[in-house]
Design goal:
The complex is a heterodimer of chains A (142) and B (136). By secondary structure, chain A is of the alpha/beta class. Chain A is built from 4 helices and 5 strands; from the N terminus they run ββαβαβαβα. Chain B is built from 4 helices and 5 strands; from the N terminus they run E-H-H-E-E-H-H-E-E. Chain B is globular. Chain B has a single domain, classed as Histidine kinase-like ATPase, C-terminal domain (Heat Shock Protein 90, 2-Layer Sandwich), CATH 3.30.565. The chains are: A alpha/beta (142), B alpha+beta (136). Chain A binds chain B through residues 26, 28-30, 59-65, 67, 89-92, 94-95, 98-101, and chain B through 16, 19-20, 23, 27, 37-38, 40-42, 44-45, 48-49, 52, 96, 103-104, 106-107, 109-110, 113-114. The complex binds adenosine-5'-diphosphate and magnesium ion. Adenosine-5'-diphosphate is lined by residues 49, 53-54, 57-58, 82, 84-87, 93, 98-101, 103-109, 128 of chain B.
């Protein structure tokens, strides 16, 4: 692992040509903004084709956290690295649906293996199953 | 299990670390009260949204977490209060996508959807109090 320590930092590893970030800290605006900057710099220098945000260690994500992560993902994508989020817990998903945040366009996979497999396949442009691109969670829930 | 109906925690909110502290405490109490994990998340997310509103719009305030007892059920009550600028138009503040801070404007309406009971009291110049309840 190759990150400058710091209790609040988010470790980012290079795996199969992709950057994998395991987010296991309390999300604050400061932590997320610093992470965004580090991630984008590494995308720029490492010529990666994918970015995986592993949030399996995250217990709470409010509307602002989600929006910041989503913006980070679209920035990665504009730089040429496909972003995939993995490990969203059921409780977080319910809260995000209640908050009614816009999840359209966010690519999600169940786990790291699935995400890396899809990113690898997408890179070699073999036709393959696309992980779920969330199109609309805005349908009202009961 | 011994309930939480007589437990109470007050967390002064002055910075992001206080928000994190309030979230941890809310999770601990909702867990002790045996809320389902999905509702534990709703409670923790509610605390995050309300405490961050205090920081952003009032600068400082307080979050109170406590068990509550209804006629036939138990639950948890969250109060977020501050002596900040207050909200002039509470109807707007409660509608989706209204924000005076240039953000998503989904916090208050989202909290309303996540909780079973919701009350917003605010007086311009005097402050804001949000009281919510989630029943087991
Ligand atoms: N504690 C508060 N004090 C003053 N105004 C508040 C407070 N909480 C919320 N508001 C007002 O209500 C609006 C909606 O809040 P919210 O739904 O959380 O969305 P956001 O925080 O993204 O603006 C805010 O933009 C602000 O104008
Ligand atoms: Mg808010």
């Amino acid at each position: 692992m190759n990150n400058e320590a710091g209790a609040d930092s988010i470790p980012v590893q290079l795996m199969r040509g992709c950057l994998v970030a395991s987010i296991q800290v309390d999300l604050t605006e400061q932590v997320l903004k610093r992470f965004r900057q580090e991630l984008l710099e590494r995308i720029g220098s490492a010529r990666v084709h994918g970015v995986v945000l592993d949030v399996s260690g995250v217990d709470v994500m409010d509307s602002a956290d989600f929006e910041t992560l989503k913006t980070t993902m679209s920035m990665a994508s504009v730089m040429g690295a496909s972003p995939v989020i993995v490990g969203l817990k059921p409780g977080i998903v319910s809260a995000l649906v209640d908050l009614d945040v816009d999840t359209r366009g966010v690519r999600a996979a169940l786990n790291l293996d699935d995400a890396l497999e899809w990113l690898g396949a997408a890179e070699s442009s073999t036709a393959t199953a696309d992980p779920a691109v969330i199109r609309d969670t805005h349908a009202r829930h009961p | 299990m011994q309930g939480i109906h007589n437990a109470e925690a007050r967390i002064a909110i002055r910075g992001e670390s206080d928000v994190a502290r309030a979230i941890v405490q809310a999770r601990r109490m909702s867990q002790a009260a045996a809320f389902q994990t999905v509702d534990q998340s709703r409670i923790a997310t509610t605390v995050s949204e309300l405490a961050r509103n205090i920081l952003k719009y009032a600068g400082q305030g307080e979050v109170i977490l406590r068990g509550c007892v209804g006629a036939t059920r138990r639950g948890m009550e969250i109060i977020a209060e501050d002596s900040g600028p207050g909200i002039a138009d509470t109807d707007s503040a409660l509608s989706d996508h209204y924000s005076s801070g240039g953000t998503l404007g989904l916090g208050l309406p989202g909290v309303q959807r996540m909780m079973d009971e919701f009350a917003l009291e605010s007086e311009p110049g005097a402050g804001t109090r949000v009281t919510v309840r989630k029943w087991l």
